[in-house]
Amino acid sequence: MSYPVISGNNLNNSAKEFNQAIQYIMQNDIAVFKSLISNAVPKYHPISTFKMDCDITIIKPKNSPLISIRFTITEQKSDSPSTRPSKYHETVNYNFEEGLGKNIPLASLFKPDSNYKAILDRFMKNKLDMLKIKGLSEIAKEQVLLDEPQFNLRQTGLLLTYDEGAIGPQEVFVPYNALAHIISNASPIEVCVTRPKECEQER
Predict the structure, then answer these.
(1) CA nearest 164: which of 126, 128, 114, 116?
(2) What is the pTM of this model?
(3) Could you report the per-residue pLDDT of 40-97, keeping only the tens digit for each?
(4) Sheet holding 150-153: strands in order across?
């Protein structure tokens, strides 16, 4: 199974740490899946499958690259071949600014005490209301919003992915201009909010 890495000679610490973070996600998810099927699956019925896809976006606020990756993991366990495969996501958002290379936590994008999760959740709640899913109760909607969403950086906004709840993964795009009042001045995406023409996207 292949996965995105930074290759080349004399990689700097940021590149090495990025590769280690990606490798950890791959190895950990595969190990967890193997553990589950080895404990629960009859060996004579080996149809368990594990699939991982990813999409990659690179944006450059002030020419300082930010790499955003979303892994989509689909599992089908052989003890339940008639059920739908389970699907979940993992994300990596990495800041390659010289001397600052690190994964970007969602909270670091926003001002302290901004109650950013409630604001982001409102966009997902509005989408669920618009979908009008039959039988979807208010309690079920709250379950979707239970945990902090996975997120990916885009040139003009955040892509949020909510994996919790009985209705399966849901995603919503939140434009930066709707979040401008809570984005921190120290945020790596601050330029994308205040001076969007200086925020380039490669893919």
Answers:
(1) 128
(2) 0.77
(3) 555 544 557 777 788 889 898 876 789 898 988 887 766 555 555 577 888 989 887 7
(4) 150-153, 157-162, 170-175
